[in-house]
Amino acid sequence: MKLSAIKVDSARLGQGRWIGEIPEMGDLRLRVRGIGNTEYRRLQSKLFDAVPRSKRVHGRIDPDEVDRITAQCLLDTVLLDWEGLTADDGATIPYSRDLAEQYLTDPDFARFRQAVSWAATVAADEVAGNDEVDRGN
Questions:
Q1: Number of separate domains in the chain
Q2: The organism sits in which domain of life (predicted)?
Q3: Which pTM value belongs to this model?
């Protein structure tokens, strides 16, 4: 494997891009920063360090705490906007941080959190792919 195939432009990773064609999400498009951007990693580390011992079992963090931390990281450092999200009556649901927090933290909306994670992973992969295209490879 060429080293260039695994290199990521970390500056571009944090800029954000629109991602569509999210599996099982219809017309939903998400504007996300790449997963693992610098802000994400810093916040994740800070939140993991702050988990009390009572929520750790044999050195592992309780899965509910991991979900809470992931949701917070996605909210604060990944999800920037959305398009194509509608209410049951067909009304467009515009992006707001409050709604994003609700959808990312509510266990009943776990599929939305998974969609954001998936889109952020694709965004990170596209940064690597675009770098290779930019170099003419």
A1: 1
A2: Bacteria
A3: 0.81
